[in-house]
Specification:
The chain is mainly β. It has one domain: Immunoglobulin-like. It is built from 1 helix and 9 strands, in the order E-H-E-E-E-E-E-E-E-E. Helix 1 links the parallel strand 1 and strand 2. The protein is elongated and about 90 Å long. The chain starts with a strand and ends in a 15-residue tail after the last strand.
Length: 138
């Protein structure tokens, strides 16, 4: 069972809830929902996703029809460092999905990862000019 948690939530009162959830089901995998910014201009949309602590090869993007899913994570491994609470990187898994409008050119989507921020560029399709022309009558 996957439990989705918001990675950008305030610490209280959720800390108590999370401790109780983990105690009730310690084998549950928690998937955090990373913070996102979405912007638009006349030529494109852009999604900025906060994914601190990851390497570029640990981030995956998948487009199925109009649903863009971005996920990040790594295999769990034992570490000498024991954390009381983790909200980013390390053994956490992140996932966030976005429904894309029909105006996005799916073939031109690109992404860049720098300083813990993934920026996904979603160019808009060129607008089709309505077919209009004068027709002479013979």
């Amino acid at each position: 069972m996957n439990t989705v948690k918001c990675g950008y939530r305030p610490m209280f009162p959720y800390l108590f809830d999370e401790v109780m959830e983990r105690a009730a089901n310690p084998s549950a995998e928690f998937i955090y929902k990373p913070a996102a910014n979405v912007r638009e201009d006349e030529k494109m949309f852009a999604i900025e996703l906060s994914l601190p602590g990851f390497e570029k090869d640990e981030i995956r993007m998948k487009l199925e029809k109009d649903l863009l899913t971005i996920s990040a994570g790594r295999e769990k491994k034992e570490s000498e460092v024991k954390y009381t609470r983790t909200e980013f990187g390390f053994n956490a898994k992140y996932s966030r999905s976005f429904m894309l409008p029909d105006s996005v050119d799916a073939d031109a989507i690109s992404a860049e990862y720098r300083n813990g921020i993934l920026t996904v560029s979603l160019p808009k399709k060129a607008e089709q000019q309505p077919l209009s022309k004068e027709i002479s009558i013979a």
